[in-house]
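PT: before anyone asks, these are the final sequences, not the draft ones from last week. 371 residues across everything. Please model them as a single complex and drop the result in this thread when it's through.
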Amino acid sequence: MYIIIVGGGNVGYYLAKTLFAAKHEVLLLEKDRLRYRTISEELGEVVMQGDGCQADQQLEAGFGRADAVVAVTGSDDDNLVVCQMAKMEYNVPRTISRINDPRNEKLFKKLGIDATVSSTKIIYNLIEQEVGGGEVIPLAALNRGNIEIVEIEIRKNSIVAGKEVKSLALPAEALIISVIRDGHAILPSGETVFAISDSVIALVGADKEHELRIVFGENSD
Amino acid sequence: MNIVILGCGRVGSTFARLMYRDGHTITIIDQQSEAFRRLGSKFKGNRIVGNGIDEDVLRRAGIEQADVFIAVTQGDNRNIMAAQLTQHVFDVKKVVARIYDPIRADRYRQLGVITLCTTTIASGLLRDFVNTNEWGLAKDYSEEYLSLGV
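LR: through. Structure below.
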């Protein structure tokens, strides 16, 4: 895949290295000349100096044949315009935007950005789970958030410890896909018994997450 | 009319003073409070210090009651995002974004954002003047500006 990353800060830099290691064709676009020099010294021709919002520089960067454009600058307005211009000018199949202010998520979806990632929100969710004593941790969203992948930790006082998978009254739109025990992933059957400190990985419809939490005995609020 | 202006540079502050004198209710937003010095002594509209692409700041500026929103910060993308935010989230009826980059101005115009591209306007006027020795404008609004005083 040809993936264009706009924004050569830490997120863009490490993302470029990771994608590169996974054998993708990558271009990292950085506006600031000084920052460009620093990262291109290490990454070489993978880095281009330019403004990802400007049509002529998008052309030069090859937006026309990009499979995905990922905007990860520290400014939500720049990320929005990069993705919108990529769609309007080059009909890029997949645009992904980093969002700094989580409240912008809805607006970005409405304005046609294919996917958004907010580290602010991910960290907030993790803290919420810790503080709230909850056991269900969202890992990822599929199909624009209709389906979530969640991780459920079986703690000491869990009501499901010692129970079989088939004994749980799971919501119709929930599926337990793996149980991770002592670092090994188990493909569970109905007879698999939950043990303390298991991590259960499940797929669940976004609107059924609450029901799943109740099945695993999370204190509902 | 209730008018919210984002960006208190030369254009934002002059537009605010003109509309305030004409009796409209004005709120002007800028990230830096020193920018409000450009408003002069007669302007008594609201001044809000804050980031114009933050929904809370826009609410504090009374965007929910606004008839008009004008985005004239130095950043094209900031103006574009603020315009789309006020159009799609706050349902403001008349929204204009000043955009320096002619390509972006054109594309967002096609997306339904009213854009004012001062780059194409000024360079077009200059070309016409050089070619024909005539200004393609009926007036340059300088009298209105001078009548505002200081």
